Amino acid sequence: MGRIKVKYDLLLFVLLMVILFIPIIQEWTGVFPVKPLNGVFVPTTKPELTFENYKTNTYQAQIDKYSSENFGMREPILRLYNQYLWDVFRKTYVSKEQIVFGKDRWFYEPGSVSDHEQRLFRYFAADSTQMASMLSKEAQKLLHLQQILEAHGVHLFVCLVPAKDLIYPEYIPENHDTTYQGTPKISARFYNEDNFTRLGINHLNLEQWFLQIKDTADFALFPQTGMHWSKYAALLSADTLIRYMEHLGGINMKNLVIGPREYDEARRPDGDLEDLLNLMRPVRKPKYCYADCMTDGDPTATKPKIIVIGDSFWWTIADQLPLKEIFSRAPYWYYNNTIYYDDRYNSLDELDLAEELLSSDFVVLSYCATQQYRMNDGFTQKALKALGVKDSDAIMDSASFVEREIQRTIADILASPKSMESIREKAKQFNKTVEKAVRDDAKWIVNYKIQNGTLNWPKHDDYIAMDSATFIECEIQRTIKSLKSNPEAMQSIREKATKYNKTLDKALRDDALWVVNHKIQQGTLKWPVNNNDMNPKPESHGIQQ
Amino acid sequence: MVFSSNIFLLYFMPVFFLVYFILPRKVRNYFLLLASLVFYAWGAPEFIIHLIVSVIANFYLVRWMNKTEKPGLKKVLCGISIAISIGLLFYFKYGNFTMQNINTVRGWFHAEPLQWVKILLPIGISFFSFQSVTYTLDTYRKVNEPMQRLSDYMLYIVMFPQLIAGPIVRYCDIADQIRNRESLYTDRLHGFYRFVIGLCKKILIADVIGFQVDQILGPSNYDVLTSAQLADIANKIATIDSTSAWIAIFAFTFQIYFDFAGYSDMAIGLGRMMGFKFPENFDNPYVSTTISEFWRRWHQTFSVFIKNYLYFPLGGSRVKTEARKYFNLWFCFLISGLWHGAAWNFVVYGALQGIFICADKLFLKKFNERLGRIPSVFFTFLIIVLTRCFFRIERIDLSWLFIKRLFAFDFVPFHFGDNPHLYVTMLVAAFFSFFTLSKLGLKVQDKVYFTEYNRRQHIIAFVVSILAFIFCLGALNASGFSPFIYFRF
User: Which residues of A touch B13 (CB under 8 A)?
Assistant: First the structure.
């Protein structure tokens, strides 16, 4: 009996030793297949053993950290412990900077929640005033870039990608972070939307579209445990995006043909936040909607060249779309840093930015709300510089410029006793305050200068890359495109052409000239930021005729 | 190197035991010695030479002391040997503290502070210094013959299971085992089970609680903090509400027990795997009905050391006056307080323990007896908890401020959901701390720790130990792994 017991103990002891050696064997050989851990971290490099770093304990500390990242069977061991923490305590070691656990097991990216509470700007600016100023400046630069590109037939537009907090605010935990009580607050998403609309920057607001379909959509717009839009919602967004390009460029592109829906467990990147928890089994098992995507194969369709500069949301579109069928080129400049989907380049440093931009048909800036604080990752600035604008920081929009002119004129009036006497009389006559009368007078003078073409737009070389004539020509071309896409207007123009014995093209241009001229007269034309004589002028334009 | 590290658990321990058990018995001690030196040199490379030199010096001094027939020389050599051990301990552990205090006093007289390069504390010095002392004194008292081989003596001092944090193994307890011991397979398995129990205590209870205690009270080692960090801690303590304060100090009381007892379990377990029978170090101290009983159950090997090598030489209880007896008791605890750390808060802690021990002898024990067992256990536990304030907070003014916050009665509502991991772990800690108040608890403890297992029990213990070991590895590494989503980059 005793001998059997000893044998039995020996067996267990041998088994124990084998088990203790499994991590080492796995580390050296990788013999057991294990599911790798999700997420990205900066790996610790294997330290070099030297007497100096051994003596100072640096080697020991580093090798311990290195081994904690590389020991065999680490993956299942960590998953097991994470599962215990999650099941028992609803806790995880994934940092608070990575996930906000919402109500009913909805997960949010913390930036998204911060932006919902309009306090994300704190990471980018000292206060909301500074943030507003930065966003405003970026919008002015963007407008300018849009105008320059437009003059070369390249359409730039911003795609405002939805963030989860706006579409599903109801699951955001209450008082998730009450540390910031400061006011006023600001959110880039609303500020940019207003700015883009005011300045006439092309933009497609998918957030609004998502909000509209939220209650009626029979598929998830966002996965409950994911950060990015669902794959299916991204697919539908891509369809909208293509239609917008068709509208903006006045072209016909291939239509997307979205296959029958298929419901399945989360496929990457749906549930990407949950992946970070590295659990053994899923937090939830909802069925998400998926579909294959093809095009209608229209042989007459245009295949534009596009460039997408944006954040990770674009991956979900790019991975699903038959990009090569729809676009003749669709490189993705991820955070304006690394280039994907381009056989020619890997990095922005390798290419000629101006050439690349000017040889494209569309430049798409695709950022979600939380990433809009990144100011397009410096793309606007770089692009303006590449296109000849030496000091893009000096750019201001026409409204700002006009306001500055008004202020200057007010100062001139105030400095002139004669003018002031006249204005006081006017104020009395029209029952206004003197201040109001001064401003009205200044406004009238500036407007008069604009209408007569005598306003001295700043002449600084760096200030603007486009002269007013080029700008007006752009406007004319833009209007022609707009008229072309309007069947009723085209019918009217055809009739006029017949009536006045003009070619259709001449009639079209004349009509566009009239529209632009009318806008100038009415003061509704969105003026360029400035003019100078750097760029070649068109031979003639309608206003002078 | 510490036991609760990847390097030890994943590499050192498996490789050590594989080689150790493959080697012939004759050379196992040499290998154990080599491994122990590697173990120590890994964590304290700059002190390994000090350690080796002091061990060699002590070995030959004691041998000389043992050989000499001259009583005077014997005494001198004994004194030199002890002076080396205690001198090194004093220099490394109390040098900074002494200089700080000298400079404080000089400051009172507007004298320039003395320049002093801060000394780093070698890990484990308190333990191996005491073991050296026991070797010298046990040999001097003829309790045991000195070791014949330097390697054996060095092994006794630097043996890695008990080198860093005890238990303090007296020479007389282990002298025979160094040359003659047997490591049965069942001992190896039991040793591993015991090791895993200790690992669980350390990683799953003490570390979890400790992390939260640090969140509430700030880091415990004030020596390495900047003045801004210290100011932050002072501010934290000054503004802490009573609920958080009580949670923090109860949590710390459990943390320190499970941390220390866990380490002792690991040491005893590792020793048993090699055939050593190290003395037990903790015997459910929180079920004590008096402070005296608590100190018989808490860090037992240290208490035995203090009793044998300090209290008895002072005269113990066989002294002329009652006052002297109480002074001896109090003084021993004062010294033991200082042994825990070189700071005034530890002196206060020791002094307080001494006062309570004297109070026990005078009236507290009788009072507790009248209270009954369970109430006296909780009353004693409360005293321990309160005195722990001086142990955890390394500045007396802040300790006192913290005690005031405990009794400020500005309680805020307690929400279990705020930190379920901490509260559940504290409940588990409380359960195991007081488990042996019941007969069933004692029976279970006896079964788990001290009884041979039959085949079925071995299988259960084996599976549970392996799972717990894996779990501990997960806990050890999960906290450091916090990946970013950084999509596809």
Answer: 20
In angstroms, the CA B5 to CA B3 distance is 6
Q: Is residue A16 part of a domain?
A: yes
- Do A269 and B487 count as a contact with CB atoms less than 8 A apart? yes
Size of interface A-B (CB pairs under 8 A): 148
Which residue range(s) make up the domain with A31?
Answer: 2-79
Residues A478, A405: one domain?
no
- Residue A179: pLDDT band (50, 70, 90) is low
Q: Which residue has 């030496």 as its token pair?
A: A390
How distant is the Cα of B309 from the closest Cα of chain A, in angstroms?
A: 35
Residue B159's SS3 state is coil
Model pTM? 0.75
Residue A451 pLDDT exceeds 70: no
Q: How far is CA B359 from CA A216, B79, B352, B366, in A?
A: 77, 34, 10, 10
**What pLDDT does residue A543 have?**
29
> Total structural domains in chain A?
4
In a domain, A145, yes or no: yes
| Residues of B with active-site annotation | 340
Task: Point out which residues pair with B13 in neighbouring strands.
Answer: none
State chain B's maximal CA–CA distance in angstroms: 81
Quote the CA–CA distance of A397 and A202 in Å, as a whole number: 15
The two counts, helices (H) then strands (E), for chain A are 21, 12
Torsion angle (degrees, nearest 10) of CA A14, A17, A23, A28: -80
The answer as to whether A85 is a domain residue is no
CB contact under 8 A, A95 and B482: yes
Q: Are residues A129 and A74 in the same domain?
A: no
Please give, rounded to a whole number of angstroms, the shortest distance from the CA of A529 to a CA of chain B. Answer: 37
Contacts of A77 in chain B (CB under 8 A): 470, 473-474, 477
Would A86 be classed as within a structural domain?
Answer: no
State which residues of chain B have pLDDT below 50: 486-489
Subunit contact B18:A21, Cβ cutoff 8 A: yes
A190 lies in the same domain as A293: yes
Distances (CA, A) of B414 to A175, B246, B411, B423: 18, 11, 8, 11
Query: Is the separation of the CB atoms in B33 and B154 below 8 Å?
Result: yes
State whether A511 and A387 are in the same domain: no
**CB-count burial class (<10 Å; 0-12, 13-18, 19+) for A264:** exposed
Cα(B332)–Cα(B350) distance, rounded to whole angstroms? Answer: 8
- In a mutational test of the A interface, the residue from B6, B49, B50, B215 whose CB has the highest number of chain A CBs within 10 Å is B6
| Gap between the Cα atoms of B365 and A353, Å rounded | 87
> Are A293 and A357 contained in the same domain?
yes
Residue A241 CB neighbours (<10 A): 23
- Do A222 and A362 lie in one domain? The reply is yes
Select the residue of B186, B480, B485 nearest A276 (Cβ to Cβ): B485
- Contacts with A40 from chain B: Cβ below 8 Å: 483-486, 489
Q: Is the peptide bond before A269 cis (omega within 30 degrees of 0)?
A: yes
Both A319 and A407 in one domain: the answer is no
**Residue type at position B358:** C
DSSP secondary structure, A128-146, as one string: HHHHHHHHHHHHHHHHHHH
- Please provide the distance, in angstroms rounded to a whole number, between the alpha carbons at the two ends of chain A: 117
Helix axes B171-179, B125-140, angle to 10 degrees: 90
- Two tokens at A451? 């209408």
CA distance A68 to B10: 10
Pick from A60, A89, A109: CB nearest B42: A60
Unique residue bearing structure tokens 């035991």:
B17
One domain, residues A448 and A477:
no
For residue A11, the chain B residue with the least C-alpha distance is: B185
pLDDT tens per residue across span A99-136:
888 888 888 888 888 888 887 887 888 788 888 888 88
